[in-house]
Amino acid sequence: MFPHSAPHPVRFNPLPAPKHWLIIGLVLAAAVVLAGWAIQVVPGLTLAELAVDDDFSRHHTPGLTGLALVLNALFGPVAGTLIVIAVSLYLALIRRSPQNAALFSLTVACGWLTCQLFKVVTGRIRPDPALLFDPLVPEPVSNSFPSGHTSLAVALTLATFLLVRETRWANPVLWAGTVMAVVVAWSRVYIGAHYPLDVVASFPATIAAVLIMAGTWNRCAPAVRATIHSRATSARSPK
Predict the structure, then answer these.
(1) pLDDT tens, residue by residue, 132-152
(2) Mean pLDDT across the chain, nearest whole number?
């Protein structure tokens, strides 16, 4: 019989997070909620934002409209979910890195889905498409603050950055992802689905969620790794 070899321990790399990650994350989240409430009680602010939406609505061009509609589909719930599943499966099965697959899906899920919580808490309703000159994608009456499409773009950027943070691709990914997120934010106002401040709030809201996730990962992941390694060692030990 050949001797049982000890399983190689899974390497744990802590995620970049400031010392007071929980306080910073909660402060950012609280600021987003307070801003969402304040926007709705400041006289004239929503009308001013609606005027911006209507100005975009009156100046649609074929090229920009095509881009906005593609982004509307690509960063929507269905396509977004498929993107996360596809990347996670690639990392787990092709790259053979279950830890990176879990990290990617967890980062995107936290950053993206948390925006739904902000929407419920703030309760701001989307722009009325009947008040716009040419609403490209009339949305049903639903909560608007912050933008889910923009949050997904930010979450994908942060998740990808965390994966490549120790490589030469870190800065290019961060810059390219930021540009992508800004373009997605613009597209949401362009098609009339969100007010301008909805998309602006998506950035701190998503960053707050990912920041808290990163700090929690650093706290909990080593213990989980140690448990998995211990069980793997016990399973491979001779009876």
Answers:
(1) 999 898 877 889 999 999 999
(2) 89
